[in-house]
């Protein structure tokens, strides 16, 4: 478990940033091949290691014993850690630069790392020796290790921290802190993951301590996050709207199929006058048939029937007109008024024309029909 309620919980991006002594970026050598790293994989839990535990133990013993150590690392609370310039310099090009500059001030050189718990520095330096860490240490100090590995250019450890966060150490409690660190430490993948997590869990994240501190220390970032939250919200609404629209177009498409089917083959109680009907006939395969059957029956007997007076009849008029616009050949079509509507279309206003054209296009697109009149087959083929 990542500990947030312990002393480590005091770690906050806002105030902490100023305390850590950042090396001057101008002194940072290029990362190139300078970090060969040791051959051992950082994680004891996965991956392949070609270094035996004896070797690893040897490096850790060297660190723990401080045998012939020639560097003092000053940490918070005036606690010193002893290390070897050769190893620090080989593992971190930034350390190498600092050590080079501090040459000549006595035999033992010193480096200061403040603003992070001493234990985190200890874990960091140990990693420089053996490329290993304890799982619990990673859980406790992943944020500090991420920053230290970035500042001192130890890409192997930085990758490890990013990976461990991705694999589960990232939580709604720490995501705001880590998001800011990811931006600061140039970890684009991690910042993207944090950003997504914040948007997906906005309600929970916005009540965390991390969010409150960010609000105070980085109001611009808070504003940006809120804006992207609104964008995401709109995108979500747009997605829902599109899904609903598609449903409607699909229903219309099905109604069109069923209309042709009823007028051509007849179904159950309704159909062309030259067909026989059985009321106990098995249900047909057209999903919209049943509903349309009721509508057609109503339309046939409704006293009002005038367009605009009865909502059911109005619906029927619309379906008939829509059919006519989709119908390939009114001469052989058996849908009532198909030809009449085709003639009416030529007299229609530009505005209505555009409205209908858009609707037809959308229905065809819903079924991925390449714009060809699609009722020709429905009319020609027997059911
Ligand atoms: Zn039917
Ligand atoms: Zn009616
Ligand atoms: Zn027709």
Automatic annotation (TrEMBL):
Coiled coil: none annotated. It holds the Pfam family zf-TAZ. The keyword Zinc-finger applies. Residues 69-137 form the BTB domain. This is BTB domain-containing protein. Pathway: Protein modification; protein ubiquitination. It comes from the Eukaryota. Keywords: Metal-binding, Ubl conjugation pathway, Zinc, Zinc-finger. Residues 18-40 are annotated as: Disordered. The keyword Zinc applies.
């Amino acid at each position: 478990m990542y500990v947030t309620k312990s002393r480590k919980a005091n770690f906050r991006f806002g105030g902490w940033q100023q305390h850590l002594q950042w090396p001057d970026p101008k002194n940072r050598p290029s990362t190139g091949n300078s970090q060969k790293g040791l051959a051992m994989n950082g994680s004891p839990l996965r991956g392949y290691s070609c270094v035996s535990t004896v070797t690893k133990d040897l490096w850790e013993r060297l660190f723990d014993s401080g045998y012939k150590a020639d560097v003092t690392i000053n940490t918070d609370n005036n606690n010193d850690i002893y290390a070897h310039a050769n190893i620090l310099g080989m593992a971190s090009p930034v350390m190498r630069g600092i050590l080079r500059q501090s040459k000549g001030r006595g035999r033992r050189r010193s480096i200061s790392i403040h603003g992070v718990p001493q234990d985190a520095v200890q874990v960091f330096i140990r990693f420089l020796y053996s490329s290993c860490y304890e799982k619990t240490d990673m859980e406790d100090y992943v944020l500090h290790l991420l920053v230290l590995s970035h500042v001192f250019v130890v890409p192997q450890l930085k990758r490890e921290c990013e990976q461990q966060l991705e694999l589960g150490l990232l939580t709604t409690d720490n995501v705001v802190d880590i998001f800011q660190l990811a931006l600061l430490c140039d970890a684009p993948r991690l910042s993207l993951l944090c950003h997504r997590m914040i948007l997906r869990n906005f309600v929970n994240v916005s009540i965390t301590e991390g969010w409150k501190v960010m609000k105070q220390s980085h109001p611009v970032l808070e504003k940006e996050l809120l804006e992207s939250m609104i964008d995401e919200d709109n995108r979500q609404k747009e997605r829902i709207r599109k899904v609903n629209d598609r449903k409607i177009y699909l229903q219309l498409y099905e109604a069109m199929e069923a209309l042709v089917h009823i007028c051509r083959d007849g179904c159950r109680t309704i159909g062309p006058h030259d067909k026989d009907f059985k009321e106990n006939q098995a249900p047909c395969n057209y999903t919209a048939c049943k509903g349309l059957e009721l509508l057609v029956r109503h339309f046939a007997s409704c006293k009002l029937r005038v367009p605009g007076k009865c909502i059911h009849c109005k619906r029927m008029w619309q379906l008939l007109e829509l059919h006519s616009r989709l119908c390939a050949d009114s001469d052989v079509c058996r849908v009532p008024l198909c030809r009449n509507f085709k003639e009416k279309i030529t007299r229609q206003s530009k505005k209505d024309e555009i409205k209908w054209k858009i609707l037809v296009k959308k229905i065809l697109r819903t079924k991925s029909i390449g714009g060809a009149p699609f009722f020709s087959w429905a009319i020609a083929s027997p059911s």
